[in-house]
């Protein structure tokens, strides 16, 4: 970076021009040392490693020799507190107070991320490990529980009917909630007004709606009055009630992030509000809308209580969501783990692991569909754009060549008219 030095003005010059308040900087060719903001300094890395080792040693001495404290969780807490204190002392030897505070906060942020990641890995690992006895059997994914009892071995029966029921119910819920939720979010942002404020308040309040209340509402309004039986469609409606506020709220936030100058540029070109929303606002916020749908799907696909009240429990395959009970994976997990039999509990953990893998697969598909931000093109799209540009360039050059051939050459001068002296009449 260039070092700039201001030149002070003399009192005489200041008296001559009292209105001038800006000093002209003098630029030097010296360049200061650049700071590396990405890599970790070597001394800081040594401080972290030393503080971790010292914190573990202090906690071990306290729990094993000096105090009667016991317990692994307490040992972890004391180790972490000792690590922060020792790291602050080591950092203060070569840094000022502000740098020490910054390093301590960085350590806290990294620790919070590590704790969150560790909790997620523990939950997934525990579920998969407990469900391995059921997951290693191929029949677990292709058979139903129609001919399998509580005492049957894991080589008999499966969760194929629950997987199909989950896919059918979540598909119906997505068909209902995606257009309704995104349209409502567009209304809240593009139209506005008092009614829009009322709708936003209701959608915000429904995000905290207990799932059992949604199940009771669908049971009273649909099962009792309309269908008179539990079905997959009723379960999909209950799931839609839980998903819709999430999608509306997340889509509303995403659409607010679209810059207004894009809308103004579209209106300046003479287009309508509908075409602006369809061709400018929605494509710009596509990745954010996909994230909103993912959040809603994650909320709805794991619901158990509304499905328990509206879909019913069955051990057979049911492909008709409008007739008869249709079980889903969360409800199947609940039905398995409440049994005292070890094989049924293993099936329950296997179904839970299958549900987690199914959610991850749906997330990957959603990311592939709309994960790219506005203006980010894939390799195929870049090749298509380059080919279209080449075609446009060739068409423009051909049009220019035809125009030049059609017009007479400017360099050719007309033949001179003979004078009267050379051609007397």
Automatic annotation (TrEMBL):
PROSITE patterns named in the record: ABC_TM1 (PS50928)
UniProt GO BP: phosphate ion transmembrane transport
Transmembrane residue ranges: 45-66, 72-95, 107-129, 159-188, 208-227, 233-255, 276-298, 349-370
Function in brief: Part of the binding-protein-dependent transport system for phosphate; probably responsible for the translocation of the substrate across the membrane.
Record-stated family: Belongs to the binding-protein-dependent transport system permease family. CysTW subfamily.
Record GO terms (molecular function): phosphate transmembrane transporter activity
Region of interest called Disordered, as start-end residue ranges on this chain: 396-425
Gene name as annotated: pstA_2
Family matches, as Pfam families: BPD_transp_1 (PF00528)
Organism of derivation: Microbacterium laevaniformans
Keywords from the named record: Cell membrane, Membrane, Phosphate transport, Transmembrane, Transmembrane helix, Transport
Name of this protein: Phosphate transport system permease protein PstA
Domain ABC transmembrane type-1: 163-370
Keyword Transport: yes
């Amino acid at each position: 970076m260039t070092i700039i030095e201001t030149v002070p003005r003399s009192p005489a010059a200041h008296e001559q021009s009292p209105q001038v308040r800006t000093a002209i900087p003098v630029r030097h060719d010296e360049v200061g040392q650049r700071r590396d903001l990405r890599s970790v300094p070597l001394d800081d890395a040594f401080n972290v490693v030393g503080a971790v080792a010292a914190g573990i040693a202090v906690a071990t001495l306290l729990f094993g020799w000096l105090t009667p404290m016991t317990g692994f969780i307490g040992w972890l807490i004391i180790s972490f507190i000792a690590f922060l204190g020792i790291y602050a002392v080591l950092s203060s030897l070569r840094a000022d107070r502000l740098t020490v505070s910054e390093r301590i906060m960085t350590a806290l942020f990294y620790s919070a991320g590590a704790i969150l990641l560790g909790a997620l890995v523990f939950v997934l690992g525990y579920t998969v490990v407990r469900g391995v006895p059921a997951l290693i059997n191929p029949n677990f994914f292709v058979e139903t529980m129609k001919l399998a009892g509580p005492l049957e071995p894991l080589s008999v029966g499966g969760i194929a009917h629950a997987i199909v029921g989950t896919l059918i119910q979540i598909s119906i819920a997505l068909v209902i909630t995606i257009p309704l939720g995104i349209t409502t979010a567009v209304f809240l942002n593009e139209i506005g007004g008092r009614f829009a404020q009322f709708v936003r308040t209701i959608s915000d309040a429904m995000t905290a709606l207990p799932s059992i209340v949604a199940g009771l509402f669908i049971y009273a309004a649909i099962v009792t009055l309309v269908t008179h039986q539990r079905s997959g469609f009723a379960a999909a409606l209950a799931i839609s009630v839980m998903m819709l506020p999430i999608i509306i709220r997340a889509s509303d936030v995403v659409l607010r992030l679209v810059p207004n100058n894009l809308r103004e540029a579209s209106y300046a070109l003479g287009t309508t509000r509908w075409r602006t929303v369809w061709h400018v606002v929605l494509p710009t916020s596509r990745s954010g809308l996909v994230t909103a749908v993912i959040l809603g799907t994650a909320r709805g696909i794991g619901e158990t209580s509304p499905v328990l009240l509206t879909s019913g429990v069955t051990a057979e395959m049911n492909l008709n969501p409008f007739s008869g009970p249709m079980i889903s994976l969360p409800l199947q997990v609940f039905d398995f783990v409440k049994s005292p039999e070890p094989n049924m509990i293993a099936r329950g953990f296997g179904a839970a692991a299958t549900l987690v893998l199914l959610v991850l697969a749906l997330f990957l598909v959603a990311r592939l569909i709309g994960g790219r931000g506005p203006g980010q093109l894939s390799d195929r799209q870049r090749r298509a754009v380059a080919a279209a540009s080449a075609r446009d360039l060739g068409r423009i050059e051909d049009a220019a060549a035809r125009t030049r051939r059609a017009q007479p050459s400017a360099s050719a001068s007309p033949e001179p008219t003979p004078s009267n002296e050379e051609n007397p009449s």
